[in-house]
Specification:
CATH class of the largest domain: Alpha Beta
Oligomer: single chain
Bound molecules: oxidized coenzyme A
Helix content: 10-25%
Distance between the termini: 68 Å
Number of helices: 11
Length: 555
């Protein structure tokens, strides 16, 4: 029986995602490209298709599991193993979670690894070593984070070491099952010392790069890394020094608090003052669950999380609506939950001001309509949104204050020298904001094609996380729906967002007569910490000017 082990392909930058649906049952026949599982990240859901015709022998994940690139998700018995062996190239499916955006030459995607061709999985036992800890000194092992029998992934913490300056999570250099823990608490370990015996399944995705993993277990580890910073993404094969001394803004002597980097990051994300949390781990080490329990009890008691950011908002009382009539309770999609959290965070954190104006788009609409025959030839529909994206990019270029973000330290702002425009898209699963990259460098045809591609991917739930990252400014267009105006919520850490309503013919006084002009209502919300009213006035005036006469965009 030839077995194909299907793995999670490139997630376009997402570190881990949740399995929300298993699309087949054990024993089911599946065809190449048929969905095996559906994954959902903070921002999008994506299908993982079968790379081959066959039948499902076993799922290696369950709904609700969190997975990352390279994780094995299912075993497929290959339908025609002989043919595959003869013609491997034609039998391997591209693990196409989401198609790459069209005409996107600038963005370099990480290569998608094709699944391993058909082979029987074999196992071997290998020793996970302490990678380079950046020092010749031995440090004490203070915590063993796994147990014999546990399934570990490469990069997952095996043990925790503690020097007099920092604690370090030692990640596994192998993926597999823990057969034996060689080191014990209290041992002094240094670079290259043995930590655990791992049973590695080769020929499967559990060893994303078996030769590499083997080399790591047998030879000296990689050269000394630069010291890990609190906010720097951690290379998976290096031990992670907890930022015990130069920690990010956690209140009250966080240097003396006994917690690892992941816990510190979680506490920062949730605004939890670690000094108020009791650790339940060995030697009082604070665990993620301690933070979660702390937040739960803070919310239940209506209190705050101790960082000083709690603002004592009175809770909305829970009401039993069934007393008033028939009801049903429907689970929010992950995107809806994330949107709710983001909106509340942005609404509470950003001091909003919204400025309104109308742009005279009479001539722009005449020009846009004149593009219709050419658009039909190209197969591209040009809507007002493409011109708004182009105009917003020009306005950002002329008013760079709107292309800033406040730095996390509260002492600086970041000035961006690229212009990417986010576009809110209404989808059945919720609101998503794909990003049109380098909008200032693209023409209307290219932007229109991007708008169509991104809106289609968004509605099909096929956007990659990278499609939604890197925005500088957002446009939320309700123009196709109606309304005279609205106040959009800033998509922080961006500092401005343009809400576009439906254009209407209005009588406009030209000095001697009323003229019928097509007027487009605009609402510009901005973060008043970064943008002054004067900046916003200039931005809006410029935007209205170029929409009223797009020749100004060429100047
Ligand atoms: N005034 C009048 N008509 C407008 C218009 C405007 N401001 N903007 C678009 N239209 C018209 C177009 O001309 C087109 O008409 P025809 O079909 O007759 O040519 C029609 O509306 C097309 O609208 P569309 O929505 O299909 O395409 P779009 O390019 O205008 O917008 C997108 C694309 C993705 C922005 C939009 O579909 C969408 O999802 N908008 C919702 C955004 C949203 O939810 N914002 C709220 C976020 S906060 O909750």
């Amino acid at each position: 029986m030839a077995i194909e082990i299907v793995t999670i392909p490139d997630l376009g930058g997402a570190e881990s995602v949740e399995v929300i649906e298993l699309c087949a049952a054990v024993g089911d026949a599946v065809e190449q490209e048929e969905s095996l599982v559906v994954l959902e990240s903070d921002k999008a859901s994506m299908d993982v298709p079968s790379p081959i015709d066959g039948s499902v022998v076993k799922y290696l994940v369950a709904e609700g599991d969190t997975v990352k690139v390279g994780d094995a998700i299912a075993e497929i018995e290959i339908a025609n193993a002989q043919a595959l062996a003869e013609e491997p190239a034609t039998q391997q499916a591209e693990p196409e979670v989401t198609p790459a955006p069209i005409e996107e030459p600038v963005v370099e995607e990480a290569p998608i690894e094709a699944p391993v061709a058909s082979q029987e999985a074999t196992t071997s036992e290998q020793i996970a070593l302490v990678p380079d800890i950046g020092s010749d000194d031995k440090v004490e092992l203070i915590e063993i984070s796994v147990a014999v029998g546990d399934q570990v992934e490469e990069g997952e913490t095996l043990v925790v070491l503690e020097s007099d300056k920092a604690t370090m999570d030692v990640p596994s250099t192998l993926s597999g099952t823990v057969k034996q823990i060689i080191a014990k608490e209290g041992d002094k370990l240094g670079t290259g010392d043995q930590v655990a015996l791992i049973e590695v399944t080769s020929g499967s995705a559990l060893t994303p790069s078996e030769p590499e993993a083997k080399a790591e277990s047998e030879s000296a580890p990689a050269p000394t890394p630069a010291p890990a910073q609190a906010e720097t993404p951690v290379p998976p094969k290096q031990p992670v020094a907890a930022p015990a001394v130069n920690s990010a803004p956690v209140a009250n002597d966080s240097a003396e608090i006994y917690a690892g980097p992941a816990v510190r990051m979680l506490s920062r994300e949730l605004g939890v003052d670690l000094s108020q949390v009791s650790g339940t781990g060995p030697k009082g080490r604070i665990q993620k669950d301690d933070i979660n329990n702390f937040v739960k009890s803070a919310l239940q008691s209506g209190g705050n999380t101790g960082s000083g950011s709690g603002i004592g908002i009175p809770q909305v009382p829970a009401i039993d609506f069934s007393q008033f009539g028939d009801i049903e309770t429907v689970k929010l999609s992950k995107i809806q939950k994330i949107t709710a959290d983001n909106m509340q965070r942005n609404w509470l954190n950003v001091p909003h001001v919204t400025q309104f104006d109308d742009a005279d788009i009479t001539d722009l609409e005449t020009f846009r309509k004149s593009l219709k025959p050419e658009g039909e030839k190209r197969g591209i529909k040009v809507t007002p949104v493409a011109f708004l994206i182009k105009a917003a990019a020009a306005a950002l270029s002329a008013n760079p204050e709107f292309n800033r973000s406040l730095a996390g330290d509260g002492e600086n702002y970041v000035q961006k020298h690229y212009i990417n425009i986010g576009m809110a898209v209404d989808t059945p699963r919720g609101l998503v904001v794909p990003v049109i990259k380098d909008a200032d460098k693209k023409g209307i045809w290219e932007i229109s094609a991007d708008v169509i591609t991104m809106a289609t991917l968004a509605r099909e739930g096929k956007l990659k996380p990278s499609d939604m990252q890197g925005g500088c400014f957002t446009i939320s267009s309700l123009g196709a729906m109606g309304g005279n105006g609205f106040t959009p919520i800033v998509n922080s850490p961006e500092v401005g967002i343009l809400g576009v309503s439906k254009s209407q013919m209005k009588p406009i006084w030209d000095g001697s007569d009323f003229q019928p002009r097509l007027m487009l209502p605009l609402g510009l919300s901005y973060d008043h910490r970064v943008i002054n009213g004067g900046d916003a006035g200039r931005f809006m005036t410029y935007l209205v000017k170029i929409l009223s006469d797009i020749r100004h965009m060429t100047l």
